[in-house]
Amino acid sequence: MFAVIGMLSFASTAFAQTDSAKTDTAATTQVDTAAAGDQAPAAAEAETAVHQQIKTKFIEGGPLYMAPILLCLIFGLAIAIERIIYLNMATTNTKKLLQGIEDALNQGGVEAAKEVCRNTRGPVASIFYQGLDRSSEGVEVVEKSVVSYGGVQMSQMESGLTWISLFIAIAPMLGFLGTVVGMIVAFDNIEKAGDIDPTLVAGGIKIALITTVTGLIVAMILQVFYNYLVSKIDSLVMDMEDASISLIDILVKYNLKK
Fold first, then answer.
1. Where do transmembrane segments lie in this chain (predicted)?
2. Residues spanned by the domain of 28
3. Quick check: 80 and 28 in contact, CB under 8 A?
4. pLDDT tens digit sequence for 130-159
């Protein structure tokens, strides 16, 4: 909802500035030629702000084609940031957790070790809790439980990545769609005029180039976040597997002591 509201306010501001620019242009044409000539060097020296340039290009590219690409960027970044926060919160110091579980087993038994897992956040602690909860049924059952619940936790970590990959694929497609439409408009203008005039085809070609560039930029930005998330998930999964093996070893030693 916030993303859509932000996009609409951005578009309305851009259109308002376009109308204001048109009004200013109409008023300038009524000014004396000599005064306009004096003001021209000053206007040429004024630099446009970066955000103003972005709004201008957004309008020139056509809101009909630029708005979907902008939505892909907004929603893709929202999902990526949410996943980054989730994965960083899911990171656990497995060595400290394993040491705490081993000490709890030696001092208070399985229930004390389960309490340690309950007080620790993250998928590794959840997997350990499931394994400890079935420790009375044997090591093989614990191992199967850890593997099964580990797959569940991995699916939760990968949630949302399919949407990011969709936005990565669809953003350039939307840009290419604007390219095709822009070229069609340019050729229609040539056909109507019966002659190749640069002023007739410039508008269509501009739409084609701006939408394509925007779609590629959005795809590249989201691709960086996607690769980071994939590498983060891979490291967490490897950590989970190593910690699970260590948990099995701890339970074997505990059962032998009993």
1. 65-86, 163-187, 207-230
2. 1-46
3. no
4. 888 887 777 788 888 888 888 888 888 888
